[in-house]
Amino acid sequence: MCAFQTTPNKDCIRTAWDLPILLQQHNSVCRGLNYFGMTGPEMRDILAWRSVLESWTSVEERPKDPKRLEAADRAAEQLNVTAFKYGLDNKLTLLRGDVEHIIISGMDSFGTPPPLSNNAPADEMKFSYDLHNLDFDGGLGFGGNKGKPRRIVALERLFMRQAGSSFTLFLTVNVRDTIGAHVTSFLENRAATENCDVLRWYAGRGDGEYDYKLKAAVPLFLRHHAESNNFDSFFYPAVSYDGYKRARMVHFVAFFSATNSVFPNASKQPRDVWKLPMLRCGGGAINLSSSQHPGGNSGDSQRLLQGAPKEILSLL
Amino acid sequence: MVAKKQIKTTGQHIAQLNLSLDELDKHPGKAVLLAAEADDIGAELLSILSKGLYTNPLDCIREYAQNGVDAGARSIRIKITGNAVSILDDGAGMEREDMLAARRFGLSPKSITEHVGFRGIGLYSGFDICRELSIRSSKAGSTRVHNMVFKFADMKAQLDTERLQDSSKKRTSLVDLLSKHTQITLLPEEEDKDRSYTLVTLQDVSPEHVALFSDQQRMRNYLLANLPIDFSSTFPHQAEISKALREKLGVAYKPVKVNLQLPGRESLAIEKYASIGSLQAPTFHSIYDDDKLIAFVWVCLNNIRKTVDLNRKESDPEYAGLLFKMKGFSIGTRDKARTLFSRPQIYDWYTGEIYITNPAVIPNAERNDFETSAAKRVLMVELEELAETLTENADKFSLRENAKESLAKHGAMLNKLDSIFGSADSPVGQFDEAMNAYRDLGDVLKDLKKRKKAIEMLPTDQQTLATDINLKAKKYQVALEKLIKEPAAVFQNKKKSVKKGTSSTAAVGQKEIHEMLAEDAPPKLIDVFQNAGWTIKSPADVIIELFQSALDDLIKPGSTEYKNFINYLSEKIADNNLEK
């Protein structure tokens, strides 16, 4: 039995939210997009986005624990079968290992680098994917005394790897993590710096509303690292939904456009991306979440999402 | 739970054995049957057979691909990911009963007449190289998917432990080993019940073997040499050969499309004869024993009269020679058929395949030869005859092509004489040029005479060209001889170049003329043989030397008799080449 299980909410996001964004990117570059990420054994993402994709590099974990390894091996085998069944295997490259490890080190558990990399030594290796789909089976990080969580490090490293190559990031995280205090502290600091009540509102969310904190914090974190690596960033509203076994998930989408700037770049999208609305996917549809930050209005969406696909704007 | 057959305990087994031995004691001299039990077959057999039969780790890929072909697969995908090797085919797939039958050791549900594999051990060919073997399959008409896993590492660990233990301790039987470390799972249903496939995955292949599997060149060349891979669409003769094979072999000809993907690389389609050129159109040969077709052969001769692999790069597959095939799978290498040819250098001019259709010709377990049998002997005799025919055809082709090249060369030479002397009717020119041309014309006429039989095999227009060249060369020869003998012309030129004269100048000139007009010294005997394409090795060279010496003693070299003998011998050798 594979670890990842799709749900109707995930399926809805895949087709109603993600696909129009990818279609716009596909039309902009006039070619198929190259995918890197966690397709899962059933490759539902690839099947849903096949019309805009050119190739897919799929990552399946390779745990050390023998029982988990056996399950992971069966999942990898299922992935091969799925690819064969749907005629996807010619364009499929399978890497084994943790996706965070692959991004950080530049290679999988067997030393195989992603095919769309420049094969340079790890410190200099660059990727040139158009789409990174990081569907972490778990939270954004598990902190403690062991330093920065690997997923956070991986996200930071991703911008270094992709330097010079524009890409879309789909990031899906579970609200269960142990870095909540760090997230809150980060938001409070930004609220103070920006003197922003909206950010204070997000920082002050209580139990059961951690998804809101992530909604505000993650784009700020990503934008900081994107701009440091000369990317212009464009964020879409976050979408929260109930996933497998009713786990609360938050789905982030951003497009990072590589620039030639020699200094850290300032994105064209207005700075106050925290004013984007929170969306909720449920019952097969994506709508505005019932709870929004104070003062939120449709004007913010219009202002912040200039250039977004009309299918996205129509949902807001 | 799968129902198990009743297995006797050790006690019951010994009791039965004792009964038999009692009979033996009671009736000395009478043969008594001895029953065997599962415990009589040790687990070491698995290790012995897999290591002994599959010395090349790549052979396991062949074995699993073979199963796919037997299941009617049209395509096979081989993928290396990290240290896992997967072989996926689109054959008929297996239901539960099929998987259980396939797992049996040394017992195959397949038939030697219909299938490639029939010994029931191929499944275990990966035993020595991976941690576990996983087989996942879905059969057309069923939505059930099963996954069978053989935990080879655990089996090996158990065997290793037992090897070190005290000899008094009981060793595991093969049955027990397989029972303990093989499992089967029913997976979630397949949505499309018309879909069929089998995926074989070798998990955790040992590092040295992974390096071998990840070598694209070696993998590609191994697959090309061993699997029934389809022809490349770029091979000029693929349509004709494929059609002939399908017509002659019917369902026994099952080419497959093979894709290979190595870590981090795009998938590569493996195709046969993709980069080979300059071959003549194929010829087809059916080999019969009485009225039964026992083999079908296609061959192509290289157009350039050298080995087919002349321009082959190190990384390219080898195509020189013929490859034995049974149901599309190779038996041995292309060197195997070389011994059928009496002249090995001709063998490499050919490429082709020998499809064995006689089921009585059985490949050995290693698939590098055939088991000794009367059927094999009959086949080899017939193939030797074919090899003679092919050698003769190659020789004729060679003679014809050599003749064509000579005609072209001689024609060009005569054209050059036209530009020097004006025409063959009344040439005008310098003494030295005339002398050189006269000598060359002698060579041309000799060459045309030597190649007479070969020229007769050429098309009409080439024969006409040969006649024209012959006539023109003779005309030139006569005219130049006259020019050379004409004193005014000769000495006109010589006076200009010779110092203030002595009468010896005239004598020198005449002596020169005489020597030049005299026919050239005839070739030595050994030259005659070598010019005809023979390779002279010891002690033949000594024998020929002796003949030369005797000939020189009996007949004056340069004399007419000597020259006639040499010409006659040359013709005899040319005839012999043709007849052979």
Summarize the structure.
By secondary structure, chain A is an alpha/beta fold. Chain A has helices at residues 8-29, 44-49, 66-85, 99-105, 150-161, 180-194, 197-203, 210-228, 298-304, 310-315, and strands at 33-37, 53-60, 92-96, 131-139, 167-174, 231-235, 239-242, 248-258, 279-282, 285-288. In chain A, helix 4 (99-105) crosses helix 5.
Itemize the secondary structure elements and their pairings.
The complex is a heterodimer of chains A (316) and B (580).
Chain A (H helix, E strand, L loop, with lengths): L7 H22 L3 E5 L6 H6 L3 E8 L5 H20 L6 E5 L2 H7 L25 E9 L10 H12 L5 E8 L5 H15 L2 H7 L6 H19 L2 E5 L3 E4 L5 E11 L20 E4 L2 E4 L9 H7 L5 H6 L1
Parallel strand pairs in A: 1-2, 1-4, 2-3, 4-5, 7-9
Antiparallel strand pairs in A: 5-8, 6-8, 7-8, 9-10
Helix pairs in contact in A: 4-5, 6-7, 6-8
Chain B lengths: L9 H17 L17 H10 L5 H12 L4 E7 L2 E6 L6 H7 L27 E9 L6 E6 L1 H13 L9 H7 L1 E6 L9 E9 L1 H7 L2 H11 L11 H12 L7 E5 L6 E3 L12 E7 L2 E10 L19 E6 L2 E3 L12 H4 L2 E7 L17 H48 L9 H20 L1 H5 L3 H26 L1 H11 L5 H15 L7 H7 L8 H15 L5 H20 L1
Parallel strand pairs in B: 1-7, 11-13
Antiparallel strand pairs in B: 1-2, 2-6, 3-4, 3-6, 4-5, 7-8, 9-10, 10-13, 11-12
Helix pairs in contact in B: 11-12, 11-14, 12-14
